[in-house]
Amino acid sequence: MPEPLPMPDEALLQTPAQTVGPFFGYALPYSGGPTVRAPWQPDAIRLHGTVFDGGGDPIPDAIVEIWGADAAGRPSTERGVLDRDQHGFSGFGRAAVDRDGLYAFTTIKPGATRAGLAPYLLVTVFARGVLHHLFTRAYFDDEAAANGADPLLSSVDPARRHTLVAVSDAPASYRFDIRLQGEGETVFLDFGLEGRHEGMQR
Amino acid sequence: MPRPAPQPGESQQVIDAEIAAHHRAAHAAAASGAPVPAHPPRDFAPYRSTRLRHPTHELVRADPEEIELVSPAFGHTDVAAEEADLTIQHAGEPLGERIILTGRVLDGDGRPVRNQLVEIWQANASGRYVHKRDQHPAPLDPNFTGVGRMITGDDGSYRLTTIKPGAYPWKNHRNAWRPAHIHFSFFGSAFTQRLITQMYFPGDPLFALDPIYQSISDQRARDRLVATYDHDVSEPEWALGYRWDVVLTGPKSTWMEPEDADHA
C-alpha cells in the first residue's frame, strides 16, 4: 500500500474562483489585447467567433483569452505582453465580446508543441454567470491529418469533436464559436483541477 | 438622485432555501467520500445568471501540454508602479475609507508566483462602478476609477492602496445585495493556474445572503476569499491594512524554473 498523502497545509489550499461579473469592461480589456500579431504581418491570422448561451442567444458580457505557441511550437518568452510592439509576438491575447457576443483576435497559427500533436490555441472564457472560467482549445480545420492523430481530439466523443475545431471562413481567417450550453455545446477541458480533493467543513 | 421603483422578484427566503439545499447535497456527497472541489460548481441556480451559462456535459479531462504549463511573460515593464495606488489616479482624493491591501501569491507547494500580473477592479465607496451598464443610483466619484494593476515581487507579494468598496444592489432576486468585494485576476506560473475571483472583507453581514459567495459549499474555502485585518499593515494617520494570500495550485512546468534548475 502506498503511504497516504499528507494532509495539505490549510494555508496552501486552492483559492476558489468567483465570476468575473458584469463590470469588467473598463478594467480587463487593454489596448492591443486582441492584437497578438499585427494584422499587416504576412503570417497574421484572424480567429473570431460568437459566445452563445444555452438559449442560443449571444452573450454580451463575456471575455475571451487565447494563449498559444509560436510558429515553431514554442511558448513565447518575450517580455512586454501588455505593451507589445508591432513586430513581436507574445502568444497571449484578451478580447471582450461586443454587444452581439462577437470576439476577434489577430494572431499567428501556432506550430505543434510536440510531435504527434495538432496545433491549437488554448482558449479561456470568463463571463457573468460563469462562476469558474472555462478552458477549451481551438484546433484548425485545415490540419485534418494532424487533428486525426491528436490524442485529445481522439479522446473526445466524435459527435462533439467539431466544437474544438476552428473553421476556415476566409483566407487566413478562422471562425470559432463558443457555446456554453445546449445544442452544439463546446467541449470544455479539465486539466486535473476540477476535482481537487480536500476535507469539508461546515 | 431618483429612487427607482422596487422591482418584483423572488424573495431572499427562496434563494436561501436553494443555497441550503445545495450545501446539504455537497456535504452529503463529501460524507460519502466524493471529492470536494475547491471551486464553486458552475451549475448553481441560486445565482440566476448561471442557468443558461453552465455546460451540461462533463468536462473532458486533458493532459496539459507544454504551452499550458507556462504563462505569458509579464514583467515590470508592463505596469507602472503607480497603477497599484487607486487613490492617485485623478486630480483629487477619492471619497471613502483608504485601505492598504497586501499579500502573497503562492503555488500549492508554497513557492512564490513571481513576476506575474495581478489586476483588480472594484466599485467606489458608494457601491457604484464606473462601468456604463451599472445603473445603481449611487454617486460616481470623479476621483475614483477603481482599476489597478501590479506585478508580483520575487516573494510573490503584491501591495495596493485603494478605497474600501461599498456593497451594492443587483437584480438576482428582490433586495439582493453583493457584499463589498474587490475583483482580482491572477496568472500562475502555468496557464492552467489562471484565476479570476473576488476578495471580501471580514465580518460582512451579507455573506450568508449572497449566492455568489455561497456558491462555494465549504466554509473553509469561502473563508479563503476573505481578507484579514492586519494592524501591522495599517499605517498611522493614513490607512487601514488588510492581508489576503492567494494559492494557485495545479500542474506546472518544472523546466521553466531557472531558480530550481540551479539546485538540480
TrEMBL record, chain A:
Residues 45-182 form the Intradiol ring-cleavage dioxygenases domain. Keywords: Dioxygenase, Oxidoreductase. GO terms for molecular function: ferric iron binding; protocatechuate 3,4-dioxygenase activity. InterPro entries: Intradiol_dOase_C, Intradiol_dOase_core, Intradiol_RC_Dioxygenase, Protocat_dOase_a. Pfam families: Dioxygenase_C (PF00775). Belongs to the intradiol ring-cleavage dioxygenase family. This is Protocatechuate 3,4-dioxygenase, alpha subunit.
Automatic annotation (TrEMBL), chain B:
Residues 101-129 form the Intradiol ring-cleavage dioxygenases domain. Coiled coil: none annotated. It comes from the Bacteria. One of its GO terms (biological process) is 3,4-dihydroxybenzoate catabolic process. Signal peptide: none annotated. The keyword Transcription does not apply. Keywords: Dioxygenase, Oxidoreductase. Pfam families: Dioxygenase_C (PF00775), PCDO_beta_N (PF12391). InterPro entries: Intradiol_dOase_C, Intradiol_dOase_core, Intradiol_RC_Dioxygenase, PCDO_beta_N, Protocat_dOase_b. One of its GO terms (molecular function) is ferric iron binding. NCBIfam families: protocat_beta. Belongs to the intradiol ring-cleavage dioxygenase family. This is Protocatechuate 3,4-dioxygenase, beta subunit. It comes from Agromyces cerinus subsp. cerinus. The lineage of its organism: Bacteria, Bacillati, Actinomycetota, Actinomycetes, Micrococcales.
